Amino acid sequence: MDETESSSPPSVDNKVNEEIENQVQKLVSRHRKFTREFDKNMEICRTQLDKILTQSANNAPIQLLNSLYDVDLTITKLNEMEEEYEECALCSNTKHAQPVSISNVNEKVSVSLNDTCEDYTNTIMKPMVTMRSMVSMKSKQFFLTPSEKSESINLPESIKKISASQPNTLSDYFVYLVNEKVELPTITSIDYKAIVVKALEFVIQFFPLFKILSVSIAITIIQWLLYIIRVYLYRKSGSTPLDIELESIGFGAFSGKLLRDDLAIYRLFTSTFFHNSLGHLIISTMMHFRFSSVFEKLNGVWTTLLIYFMSSAYGMMAVCWWFPNVLQANGFSGDWGVAGALLSRLFVFPYLVHREHQHFVNIIVSYICLFFLKTIGQGSSIIVSAHILSMISGLCFGIMSNSRLRNGHCFGINSLMVDFVCSLTLLAVPICSIFMLFLVRDG
């Protein structure tokens, strides 16, 4: 018995073992924030990396061309946010490096707890490092203090892939940040297959997250059906402008006069599906895929519908007293509201990068398109100010709905003050507009 006990490897104290496991769990969970949208972002990132991994050879380097993390996120900021991190509930679905058996840990049991944790961590992650030099590239490492082996390697101007010892497994204990994308090689010869692939990638990029079961897609289909029925089936040839105006009223268009005289509150909803011209409908459809579909993927169906319709109604009510006789076509205002809600993510939680700069560009392009439609006379009932106010309301809704991502401050201001300003904006503007609408009638 004595010889058997002496020949067996020394065991680690249970308490020490629990502390080690806790340290490893914290290390694993640091790469994600305990919020639903962070989980979805990381799921997208993992899916892309897994796809690259299956296409590459074993232990081949993987170039991380993009990242969901802000390049300004440093280990200092991460330590400040550590209290907000929680253990990842989805780690079982992630391919982590397999830990070695406890018998392979350093045999010295008498060392301190911190040293034991460090030894165990280093033993678990004995990575196989492969490196590929990249020109004009910078990378940063966080979430984990580099081991001695990785410290000896020149990290700047390179992108590394650290894989687990087992083949076809991806270790996400390490995350590297890339400041810019890698320039893809130009096509020197005519490759029709590559051209088709590039064209499909462009279409998918322009219409992201295209799903036939998406509620956002259903809204677009309804808008197109109503426009086709109204213009090509219902409208008679030789219709006068008065006939078209009556037709628009019959199909749910909104105006301040109708709200004031008939209390047609339901038109705040029906006008969201109304488009007065084909150009307005096409631009609305294009930006609907860029805004509402992305927002629905991140926040769910009900939040998207709530912000879509409320921001559209907000824009209509905010300008109805100034343009009481204009039949408003607000099928596009809801998308502007959703765009404002997407932009709020950049200010509320700047550590998450979700290409918010593209939303800025899309909004500017949308404004130019609306201005062009009004210039050529194809959008006489388009009120650009209503779209801008819808975007402001969406920004307020987004800031308030994303309160769970804030840490006491937003825009550098106290969160309570920001919520007060947003609430005041959402309530005061439409109330004052409705008051002025009825005051003008009574006057």
From TrEMBL:
Q: Which Gene3D superfamilies match?
A: Rhomboid-like
Signal peptide per UniProt: none
What high-level taxonomic lineage is stated for the organism?
Answer: Eukaryota, Sar, Alveolata, Apicomplexa, Aconoidasida
Q: Which controlled-vocabulary keywords does the entry list?
A: Membrane, Transmembrane, Transmembrane helix
Species of the source: Theileria equi strain WA
Q: The Peptidase S54 rhomboid domain covers which part of the protein?
A: 265-400
Q: Name one Pfam family in it.
A: Rhomboid
* InterPro entries recorded: Peptidase_S54_rhomboid_dom, Rhomboid-like_sf
The regions listed as transmembrane in this protein's record are: 212-233, 301-324, 336-353, 360-376, 382-400, 420-440
GO CC annotations? membrane
What is the membrane topology here? Multi-pass membrane protein
Q: What's this protein's name? A: Peptidase S54 rhomboid domain-containing protein
Gene Ontology molecular functions: serine-type endopeptidase activity
Localization: Membrane
